[in-house]
Amino acid sequence: MTASNLRRADGPLCAVLFDAVGTLLRPVPCVADVYAAAGRRHGIDLSTAEVGRRFALAFARQEQIDRRWLAGRTSEPRELQRWRRIVRRVFGQVAALEAIFAELWEHFGQPGSWQLDPAVGEVWRQLAAAGYVLGIASNFDGRLLDICRAMPELAGCPHVFVSSQIGCKKPSRGFFRTIEQRLGLAGGQIMLVGDDLDNDYLAARTAGWQAVLLDPAGEQPELAAIAGLGRLPARLVSRHIHVP
Length: 244
Known about the structure:
The protein has 2 domains: about 5-25 and about 115-240, HAD superfamily/HAD-like (Rossmann fold, 3-Layer(aba) Sandwich), CATH 3.40.50.1000; about 30-110, DNA polymerase, domain 1, CATH 1.10.150. Helices cover about 45% and strands about 15% of the residues. It contains 11 helices and 9 strands.
């Protein structure tokens, strides 16, 4: 990516939006650890590895439902439903299921359960100083607003786009079009920075946006290779956007 890639017929790059989970934010402790601990508190003894395996299958199943049967449509009630179903798939139809779900829902809505990636946080500050419009574009629910408001680096962000409030989620084209309308910008004037090949990079490119695929932890180098970027650590985003 060169400087010439940042200018198109519909104008120069004006806004840089970041995906939330996996890009800006990471759960601490990790999801599998939190689920396993919640289960043990209610008498369900599953290893972290088994919880992680079950969670991955349950999450993938709900993603499939969202894409194939709901055509990307979502809402606050749908998000509540999908997470309740994920918890049920992890732990089974146990007596304490609703109590476990309530505990987990509350936990992941707490700002203290999330950590801002320090490298991406530094890029965020550089971009803000350079005058770009900044925002967050995430497949999440309304809890993300309180999480962001509690983080000093993100508290003043005026543009937090949450799928449950938009009514559709990435990679749906409607997600991107709604953001364009709210920002008053053409697709080519917006860049999405994210860690998911399909939901972030390819979906943004298909919508006519600019995009950068990240692998901040170096865990999925094959994703960047598929996108033709090579591995792109978070610290290099500013170079691709040419922050002075």
